[in-house]
Design goal:
Length: 237
């Protein structure tokens, strides 16, 4: 049975932007309960309650008992809107859930035992192709994470969805291919820095070439006035 948290709400009269703004001015976060046989119910939550819950890891995969005017509704958060400046939640949607519902949800991937991977030990890099996997599962059995064990993986190895043991009743929504979840890539090649001795030798060679070239240039400069001195004599001819 999935862990369920109780959160209080109150029915909200009116719909639209004006009613939502009024709720926010009163220190509330407006929201909607939808799904099931009942129509959409407009509600509002205490701002501090929603702020606390959205900070929880896996908020959108966590079940809640929403208490509205004495009635408890099992629901799953489906969307949160945040203020563009303050980054505070300003609206939240909950979907009603029944005991036998199967739902579609994104579940985070957790990688374990990196130290037991020969490839990573030899400098390989874990390439997480998917940080989340969309699955279908019973509404009351949403997994907290999908665990990927890296034990024994060498450089060039791949982990596919078929290699992962999913909890009972949990199935990936992608069924037409055995998609990749992670790989162990070869180590990144880094440029070798020259040693101080090699750098000094290269610098010395550069100075030697400059020293040889300089007298040639000076010799050319010395000949230049002689050539200029001949010019008037040639012009008299």
């Amino acid at each position: 049975m999935a862990d369920v948290t109780t959160i209080a709400a109150e029915a909200r009269e009116g719909t639209g932007t004006g009613a939502a703004r009024a709720a926010r001015r009163a220190g509330k976060v407006p929201g909607v309960l939808y799904g099931g046989k009942d129509g959409a119910t407009h509600v509002s939550f205490a701002a501090e309650d929603i702020q606390r819950e959205v900070k929880r890891r896996g908020f959108l995969q966590h079940l809640y008992d929403v208490k509205v005017d004495g009635k408890t509704v099992r629901a799953l958060p489906r969307d949160v809107q945040f203020h563009p400046v303050t980054d505070q939640p300003i609206h939240v949607d909950f979907q009603r859930i029944t005991g036998h519902s199967r739902i579609r949800v994104l579940v985070g991937v957790q990688f374990i035992n990196e130290g037991a991977s020969p490839g990573i030990k030899r400098g390989g890099v874990l390439n997480a192709v998917r940080r989340e996997i969309e699955v279908t599962c019973p509404a009351d059995a949403i997994p907290e994470s999908i665990v990927v064990d890296l034990t024994g993986l060498d450089i060039g190895a791949s982990v596919h969805i078929s290699h992962i043991s999913l909890p009972e009743g949990v199935r990936p929504t992608i069924l037409d291919r055995d998609f990749t979840v992670a790989t162990v890539a070869p180590p990144t090649v880094q440029a070798v820095e020259p040693t101080p001795g090699a750098a000094a030798a290269a610098e010395g060679e550069g100075e030697g070439e400059g020293a040889e070239a300089k007298p040639a240039a000076e010799a050319g400069d010395a000949k230049k006035p002689a050539a200029e001195a001949k010019k008037p004599a040639d012009s008299k001819k």
